[in-house]
Amino acid sequence: MRLRRNYGISADHYDSMLAAQGGGCAICRVAPGEGTSLAVDHDHACCPGRKKSCGECLRGLLCEDCNRVLGMFRDDPARFESAIGYLARGRS
């Protein structure tokens, strides 16, 4: 019910998305644990002001950590590129 209500998809659609991702998070590939599922990620810019997704802007299924990072970085690719550059420089 929650998938249909919040994202406009069925449990079967969720399962097919999970299978297409190889059974794990679209970013880090971790598989969902016992009794847990992956979050449905969607482009928040697509549905501004809405608490629910239109269902057309779904990007994939993410573990809690990866989903949280996207939110903290506000889906901004420049922040991710900057973070990658920072990590690649190593310790100074």
UniProtKB/TrEMBL annotation:
Gene3D superfamilies, sorted: His-Me finger endonucleases
Matches recorded under Pfam families: Endonuclease_7
Coiled-coil segments: none
Name of the protein described by the UniProt record: Recombination endonuclease VII
Biological source species: Streptomyces yokosukanensis
Taxonomic lineage from the root: Bacteria, Bacillati, Actinomycetota, Actinomycetes, Kitasatosporales
